[in-house]
From TrEMBL:
<dbReference type="InterPro" id="IPR018170">
    <property type="entry name" value="Aldo/ket_reductase_CS"/>
</dbReference>
<dbReference type="InterPro" id="IPR020471">
    <property type="entry name" value="AKR"/>
</dbReference>
<dbReference type="InterPro" id="IPR036812">
    <property type="entry name" value="NAD(P)_OxRdtase_dom_sf"/>
</dbReference>
<dbReference type="Pfam" id="PF00248">
    <property type="entry name" value="Aldo_ket_red"/>
</dbReference>
<dbReference type="InterPro" id="IPR023210">
    <property type="entry name" value="NADP_OxRdtase_dom"/>
</dbReference>
<keyword id="KW-0560">Oxidoreductase</keyword>
<comment type="similarity">
    <text>Belongs to the aldo/keto reductase family.</text>
</comment>
<feature type="domain" description="NADP-dependent oxidoreductase">
    <location>
        <begin position="17"/>
        <end position="260"/>
    </location>
</feature>
<keyword id="KW-0521">NADP</keyword>
<protein>
    <submittedName>
        <fullName>Aldo/keto reductase</fullName>
    </submittedName>
</protein>
Length: 276
C-alpha cells in the first residue's frame, strides 16, 4: 500500500505512517531499518538518545531509495538544550546519520527545570533557516509550554510528538494542536505492546475486520489524523504494521476505540521529567 501524507503547516508533507526505532540496538538498526524500507515505509523516527543514528543512516544509504523519498526525524537530547549546544547537536546527528539534512528535528523533552527550551526553540529556527532541518517541531510539550514558545517567537512547531494510544488518547492536547495547525505525532502508539493489544473490545473489532489488534490500533491513529510510527524488530510485524494502511475503520468503530481511554500514561510525565 501507498502511505498517505499529511501537510505540515510550513508547506512540507509527512508520511502518516512511519517506523520508530527506540530501543533498537545499534547492532541491528541497519538491518531492521533496511527491512522497513523494503516493506514500504518511507518515514523513520529516531533520536540521538536512541544511539542508532549511524545504523539508520547506513540503511538509508544502502536502500537505493532517493533521499527525497524518505522522511527522517531525529531529536535533540536533553543535555543539548541551549543555543550553541543545539547548533552542535544537529551537526553531530547529521554526521552520524550521514545526511545533509533531516526532514524534521524535534526538541525531545522540554525539561522545564532546565529552563532552556525557549532558547533552544530559537536556535531551531536558525537550524531550519540553515537547511539542516527542513521542518522543526517539539516532543512531549504540554499546552502551557507550547503556548509559551509560540507567543515568544511567533513560530509554531509543525508537530508535537507525545505519548498517545487508545488508553491515553490526549483528547485535550489534540484539540489544542488542531487549533494551532500543529500535527499530533503518537509515540508508543501500540501502548508498547502491553495490555492494550489484549483488550477485549479491540480484539472483537479486529476479528470483524479480519485484522490484528495492532493493525486496528494503527488504523485508529490514522483515522483520527495522527502521525504514527510503531516499533517492532520482528520482520513479520514490520510488514503487518505497514499493512494496517489497508484497514479502513468505520466511524462507529473509531469512536468505540476512542472511548477506551483510561488516562493511562506509560511513560514519564513531561511536566516533571528532567533526565539526564
Ligand atoms: P509501540 O507502542 O510502538 O510498541 C512497540 C512494541 O509493541 C514492540 O516492542 C512489540 O513488543 C509490540 N508490537 C509491535 N508491533 C506489534 C504487532 N504487530 N503485534 C503485536 N505486538 C507488536 O512503542 P514504542 O517503541 O514506545 O513507540 C514507537 C516509537 O515512538 C518509538 O520507536 C520511537 O520512535 C517513538 N517514541 C518517542 C518517544 C518520545 O519521547 N518522543 C518516546 C517513546 C517512543
Amino acid at each position: 500500500p501507498h502511505t498517505p501524507t499529511l501537510d505540515l503547516h510550513d508547506g512540507h508533507t509527512i508520511p502518516q505512517l512511519g517506523y520508530g526505532v527506540w530501543q533498537v540496538g545499534p547492532d541491528i538498526a541497519e538491518d531492521v531499518v533496511g527491512q522497513a524500507l523494503a516493506a514500504g515505509y518511507r518515514h523513520i523516527d529516531t533520536a540521538k538518545i536512541y544511539g542508532n543514528e549511524e545504523g539508520v543512516g547506513r540503511a538509508i544509504a544502502n536502500s537505493g531509495i532517493p533521499r527525497d523519498e524518505i522522511f527522517v526525524t531525529t531529536k535533540l537530547w536533553n543535555e543539548d538544550h541551549g543555543h550553541d549546544c543545539a547548533l552542535q547537536a544537529i551537526d553531530a546527528s547529521l554526521q552520524r546519520l550521514g545526511l545533509e539534512y533531516v526532514d524534521l528535528y524535534l526538541i525531545h523533552w522540554p525539561t522545564p527545570k532546565r529552563g532552556k527550551y525557549l532558547e533552544t526553540w530559537k536556535a531551531f529556527q536558525e537550524i531550519r533557516d540553515s537547511g539542516k532541518a527542513r521542518s522543526i517541531g517539539v516532543s512531549n510539550f504540554p499546552r502551557e509550554e507550547l503556548q509559551e514558545i509560540i507567543d515568544a517567537t511567533g513560530v509554531v512547531p509543525v508537530v508535537n510528538q507525545v505519548e498517545l494510544h487508545p488508553y491515553f488518547n490526549q483528547a485535550v492536547l489534540r484539540d489544542f494542536h488542531a487549533s494551532h495547525g500543529i500535527l499530533t505525532e503518537a509515540w508508543s502508539p501500540l501502548g508498547q505492546g502491553g495490555d492494550l493489544l489484549q483488550d477485549t473490545v479491540l480484539n472483537r473489532i479486529a476479528d470483524r475486520y479480519e485484522a490484528t489488534p495492532a493493525q486496528i490500533v494503527i488504523a485508529w491513529h490514522l483515522a483520527i489524523g495522527n502521525v504514527v510510527f510503531p516499533k517492532t524488530v520482528t520482520p513479520e510485524r514490520i510488514r503487518e504494521n505497514f499493512a494496517a494502511l489497508d484497514v479502513r475503520l468505520d466511524a462507529q468503530d473509531v469512536d468505540v476505540i476512542t472511548g477506551l481511554d483510561r488516562g493511562q500514561r506509560l511513560g514519564p510525565d513531561p511536566a516533571t521529567v528532567e533526565t539526564p
